[in-house]
Specification:
The structure holds 2 protein chains of 2 kinds.
Chain A lengths: L1 H9 L14 E3 H15 L3 E5 L15 H5 L4 E2 L5 H13 L3 E6 L9 H8 L2 H4 L9 E6 L14 H5 L5 E3 L4 H14 L3 E6 L6 E3 L13 E4 L4 E5 L3 H14 L4 E5 L2 E3 L3 H11 L2 E8 L4 H12 L9 E5 L8 H7 L3 H12 L2
Parallel strand pairs in A: 2-3, 2-4, 4-5, 5-7, 6-7, 10-11, 10-13, 13-14
Antiparallel strand pairs in A: 1-8, 6-12, 9-11
Helix pairs in contact in A: 2-8, 4-5, 9-13, 10-11
Chain B lengths: L5 H25 L15 H8 L7 E5 L3 H6 L4 H8 L23 E5 L5 H15 L5 E6 L6 H13 L3 E7 L2 E2 L2 E2 L19 E6 L3 H16 L5 E6 L14 H4 L2 H8 L3 H11 L5 H24 L15
Parallel strand pairs in B: 1-2, 1-3, 3-4, 4-8, 7-8
Antiparallel strand pairs in B: 5-6
The chains are: A alpha/beta, B alpha/beta.
């Protein structure tokens, strides 16, 4: 699909928390593939499934060549049947496997909500800790080229609502590798949501397997005037906004929570304590979503630090439109962040 | 009948009697309001749980549903822990976090009940996938009702089981009612056993009130699964003697045909089996008395254990959310 190449290359942000550390740089799909390769090699309980994991393109490269290397039993294509296959993942996990289940788009996870919410998320608690469900579900948010209402949703707000799930949203290749390894090792159901627009970004990725603790956010840019919490791809928009704001004398601190459940509340509160201002940028709807949840958390636990109301950059309350004119109007970006930061700090 | 040994017959009778007496005791004591959890009694369906599970090894997996007391008992689940769960106690099989609809005893391969209709079906299928991957020789069995055959997830699961040739047996207990809705009000074609054939899954109808028939047909299906020849499906027809939930069936006359009720009452699975065993001199009154006496003792002991057990600690509300 030529459009993805075009759009993604245009979006190349050129950021890396390990800049200058090494020139071993990978894309997100390459980092995911490397993690799966290592996980399959070291842990016989791991298997990888999903519609298209053995395609010539290997799920955007994430599963490329793994079936040849580990066999059709451990890396296999599946029927669409999202609800049953999620339950099959639950049952396999319950009896000793560690499945990693790939989906093209989060939109399709809605077909599996019964098994995700009523089963995967409940089994440990409902059975008094007698069982655990080490199941990782991966999905990639789409955006652009008229992907429209049913191929562009993030839906992480829905999953953040559910106790018993982990919710992971990496924004760099380094994090994608460390967080996926941690997710497989965690022993609980994990919803691992990536963003298609991050896929051509490269960042430093060590060759060896490593894990990043779930629930540990990161300060991507230090600043003193305003805190910007960016979720997934919005980390990049926030970094771009920060560069422009710097030229105008505003010094923004950028927090990447990396996981939304558990959420690193402390890193956000510490930053707001310092800056007194908070903007949250999300790739989802605001109503009942992750951004609103973070705003609520800060209102409850850090109200005394705030010098002005919390601002949210998120999707307007309509489905994602098809036409590129409407897409442009729909998706917020760095300019919206910049505008809100100026509004806030100038109060 | 001839093919089944005397020991197996007595064991089947024992299990059926145990399920019946446990259910009747729960029903009897329910009005005390100490079991604060919805109960779904399986009186009338005992032969299915007993007949199927008698063919399973301890290591084999069983998955069940909201009406799961009988399956738990037949697979050898700890009775004390089950009754304690009904009393919502910390000593319950799910430590009081599950209640009557969420029984589990992994030590005997009883892998849990889902109260979402059809919810256990793909999970059992996944357990069978795990067995295929690690070649552990286990068979998975899942029990579900006629209404679960209306859920898409059954068809999705059967397709996958057939595709991968999984060691699983699907047991549909057709008791004709979903709450108060008769099967004919819900299904265009009431022959559930025909549906698996669309996936080339071998399937048959079984009289679920005849434990010998259930035993023989499920033996074939379980042996087939264990020998690597893939999934099977049994539709076992039996009658739910009680209402959907709770003791008795106060609304019985408003939704059941009197004639249907009378006919099924003549087919009490326990009574029929008892008569046949006494007729063939496998059981006599003394044996029956002994069996009942032992079960009554176990039941008294289990209820005493449950009643005397501690409740969960309020401070542990959030424990067990993650494994």
């Amino acid at each position: 699909m030529p459009w993805t190449k075009f759009i993604i290359e245009k979006q190349e942000p050129g950021y890396d928390e390990h800049a200058g550390g090494s020139d071993r740089k990978l894309t997100v799909p390459e980092a995911i593939r490397e993690t799966l390769d290592r996980a399959l090699a070291i842990d016989k309980q791991v298997f990888v499934m999903g519609q298209g994991v053995d395609d010539p393109s290997g799920m955007f490269g994430m599963t490329l060549g793994l079936q040849e290397k580990y066999g059709k039993e451990r890396v296999f294509d599946t029927p669409l049947s999202e609800n049953a296959l999620t339950g099959i993942g639950v049952g396999a996990a319950l009896t000793g496997s560690k499945p990693v289940y790939f989906h093209n788009r989060p939109d399709f996870l809605l077909l599996a909500m019964d098994q995700i919410v009523n089963h995967a998320a409940k089994y440990s608690y409902m059975f008094g800790g007698r069982v655990r469900i080490p199941l990782v579900i991966v999905a990639i948010i789409g955006r652009g080229w008229g992907s429209a209402a049913q191929h562009s949703q993030s839906l992480h707000g829905l999953f953040m609502h559910i106790p018993g799930l982990r919710l992971v949203m990496p924004s760099t290749a380094y994090d994608a590798k460390g967080l996926l390894a941690a997710s497989i090792a965690d022993g609980n159901p994990v919803i691992f949501i990536e963003h298609r627009w991050l896929f051509k970004h490269r960042s430093y990725v060590p060759e060896e397997l490593y894990t990043i603790p779930l629930g540990k956010g990161l300060v991507r840019r230090k600043g003193k005037d305003v805190t910007i919490v960016g979720i997934s791809y919005m980390v990049i928009e926030a970094l771009r906004a920060a560069e422009e704001l710097k030229g105008e004398g505003f010094d923004a601190e950028i927090i990447d929570p990396r996981t939304l459940r558990p959420l690193d509340e402390e890193i956000i509160l510490e930053s707001v304590k310092k800056t007194g201002h908070l903007v949250i940028a999300d790739t989802d709807w605001k109503t009942g979503g992750a951004a609103s949840e973070i705003a609520s958390m800060v209102a409850q636990k850090g109200f005394k630090y705030l010098k002005a109301p919390v601002k949210i950059v998120a999707w307007p309350d309509v489905p994602v439109p098809g036409s590129y004119v409407l897409e442009e109007a729909f998706y917020p970006g760095k300019d919206d962040i910049i505008r809100l930061v100026k509004d806030l700090v100038n109060i | 009948m001839n093919a089944i040994s005397k020991d197996v017959s007595i064991e089947l009778y024992n299990i059926m009697m145990r399920i019946r007496l446990v259910e009747l005791k729960i029903e009897e004591l329910y009005a005390q309001d100490e079991m604060r959890t919805p109960i779904h009694l399986c009186v009338g369906q005992e032969a299915i749980a007993a007949g199927v599970c008698a063919n399973l090894n301890k290591a084999d997996y069983v998955f069940s549903n909201h009406r799961g007391h009988g399956h738990y008992i037949a697979k050898g689940g700890d009775l004390r822990a089950m009754v304690a769960e009904l009393y919502c106690k910390e000593t319950g099989c799910s430590r009081g976090r599950g209640g009557s609809m969420h029984l589990i005893d992994t030590s005997v391969g009883f892998m849990g009940c889902s109260s979402i209709v059809g919810g256990s079906i793909p999970i059992a299928t996944g357990a069978a996938l795990n067995s295929l991957l690690c070649k552990d020789g286990r068979v998975s069995v899942v029990f579900f009702g006629d209404a679960a055959s209306e859920e898409g997830v059954l068809f999705e699961s059967m397709n996958f089981a057939a595709l991968k040739n999984l060691p699983i047996v699907y047991i549909c207990e057709n008791n004709f009612y979903s709450v108060c809705s008769h099967q004919t009000a819900r299904q265009a074609n009431c022959d559930i056993s025909m549906r698996p054939k669309a996936f080339d899954i071998s399937s048959c109808k079984v009289d679920g009130s005849e434990v010998m028939e259930v035993y023989a047909e499920s033996k074939k299906a379980i042996d087939k699964a264990r020998s690597g020849k893939g999934p099977s499906f049994l539709e076992c027809r039996a009658y739910r003697w009680r209402g959907h939930v709770g003791p008795g069936d106060p609304q019985k006359d408003s939704y059941r045909e009197q004639k249907e009720w009378v006919e099924w009452m003549k087919k009490d699975p326990l009574k029929k089996f008892e008569d046949s065993l006494t007729k063939s001199d496998i059981l006599d009154d003394a044996c029956i008395k002994n069996i009942r006496c032992k079960i009554d003792e176990d039941i008294s002991e289990a209820f005493e254990f449950a009643k005397n057990s501690p409740l969960p600690d309020r401070r542990e509300l959030e424990k067990y959310l993650y494994g």
